Amino acid sequence: MTRSITRLPIILAALCSLALPALPVAAASRIKDIAAVEGIRENQLIGYGLVVGLNGTGDTVRNSPFTQQSIAAMLERMGINAKGVTMKPENVAAVMVTANLPAFARQGTRIDVTVSSMGDASDLNGGTLLVTPLLGADGEVYAVAQGAMAVGGFSAGGDAATIVQGVPTSGRVSNGAIVERETTFQLSDLNKLHLALHNPDLTTARRMAAAINTHMGERLAEATDPSTVLLNRPVGYKLPLVELLAEIEQLSVTPDQRAKVVIDERTGTIVLGSEVRINSVAIAQGNLTIRISETPVVSQPNAFGEGETTVVPRTQVDVTETGPKQLGILQESVSLQQLVDGLNALGVGPRDMISILQAIKAAGAMQAEIQVM
Q1: Among 77, 109, 149, 260, which is most exposed with the fewest C-beta within 10 angstroms?
Q2: Taking 80 as the threshold, does the pLDDT of residue 27 lie above it?
Q3: Can you give the chain as a three-state secondary structure string?
Q4: What is the pLDDT of residues 152-168, one digit of tens each?
Q5: 207 phi and psi, to 5 degrees?
């Protein structure tokens, strides 16, 4: 048996506040890519249904009694009396069906649905979803789903081994739902609109309002908060409001952003924004690894001798220190590229780099926000 204990890097940081260089100009984006019109959005739908036609991989009555109740209720609606009948529906599975209803979806429009097992079914391959009403948050039916499923994963096995690839208990039905009820939103009747930014920022909102006012030649837009730009219909504008939005959404705006470092400690992923700046800092990094190996030996008495068989423990402890035994210095006005190059020169891996970035932030040398996922 082998156990490893790793001590995270020992970090030394010396700080010196320095002036930062001018930042490069960010790429411009269209307004339609950085903001959305308030009120024009999707609505989530959900429903409960049955998938039939499975090859013995459906729910079992003992673990999923609601499946038997659903089958009996469905058969009763079709005029078949199934009360009191013991069922073994190995080819049927109870599922939850979800979908997103697009804005302005008209009656008869088809949308995709996602089907997920809620019982103990092992595989939904080859199944067919029966008619399933899809409800909105208000309890009204907005679409009805039905159709053959497409499942990306599969499972196969025997008595001693089983192999599973992907998720065989979830799948999709392309164009599997028909919209039956439309959402009410009269865009043409509005005299003012709110443009909601995907990434709220005061500077971006102000730039977007300025771009609209410059293009239209009058003050129609105003940034009310970091997330919202208020857009008024021009006085005497005779065209539909859709024409105004189609014209405005093509305008280019250079979005601003806060300096941020996003860290996922589970996977060792680090994402640094281009605005991140580090003051002059010195870093020493090293790993101390302690490896403990257990190799027990069985000791037995001699033939026809007295005594008992015992296990004699044997433990071996090895201590190794890896990493460069030197102090790395990141020079003044450190940019993102210089930071990455400096840490790579020290041979720092992603997980050690996470600890270094957190230590630099704690020391006050990083002018950025750290977000740990």
Answers
A1: 77
A2: no
A3: CEEEEEECCCCCCCCECCCCCCCCCCCCEEHHHHEEECCCCCEEEEEEEEEECCCCCCCCCCCCHHHHHHHHHHHHHCCCCCCCCCCCCCCCEEEEEEEEECCCCCCCCEEEEEEEECCCCCCCCCCEEEEEEEECCCCCEEEEEEEECECCCEEEECCCCEEEECCCCEEEEEEEEEECCCCCCCHHHCCEEEEEECCCCHHHHHHHHHHHHHHHCCCCEEEEECCEEEEECCCCCCCCHHHHHHHHCCCEECCCCCCEEEEECCCCEEEECCCCCECEEEEECCEEEEEEEECCEEECCCCCCCCCCEEECCEEEEEEEECCCCEEEECCCECHHHHHHHHHHCCCCHHHHHHHHHHHHHHCCECCEEEEC
A4: 876 776 666 677 777 88
A5: -65, -40
Give the contacts of 300 (CB within 8 A, at least 6 positions apart): 309
The pLDDT value given to residue 51: 95
- Residue written as token pair 């996977």: 267
- Tell me, rounded to whole angstroms, the distance of Cα 77 from its chain centroid: 41
Tell me the CATH class for 29-39+186-253: alpha beta
Q: Residue ranges per domain, the chain?
A: 2-23+260-372, 29-39+186-253, 43-179
Alpha carbons 279 and 273: distance in angstroms, whole number: 16
Among candidate residues 332, 208, 213, the one with its CA nearest the CA of residue 277: 332
Indicate whether 4 pLDDT > 60. no
CA distance 249 to 30: 6
Q: With bands split at pLDDT 50, 70 and 90, how would you rate the model's confidence at 337?
A: low
